[in-house]
Amino acid sequence: MQPPPLLVFEDDDDDILSPPTKEKGVLAFGHLEDAIRLGNAGETLEDIVKGLLRPMLRQWLDDNLPGMVERLVQREIEKIASGARRRDDDF
Length: 91
Prior knowledge:
The chain is mainly alpha-helical. Helix content is 70%, strand content 0%. It contains 2 helices and no strands. The longest helix has 46 residues. It starts with 18 loop residues before the first helix and ends with a helix.
């Protein structure tokens, strides 16, 4: 694999980094990006994180979602029922 072409940075007095330091940083991030990719699969860090989080999210949803849905539905039923009772009391 060929290294990426050198980038040309304008020297700006407002910049904290000098152009050579910027270039080294860009190259370092390029190498890091290449290192993150796994083999020929081209899997990125984002792909890896998604793969790790998916089972944890699934387990959390299995553990918590049914109870949350039940509580929310019960709350809505109570709101509807109390509204109906108030309406009956008005007559």
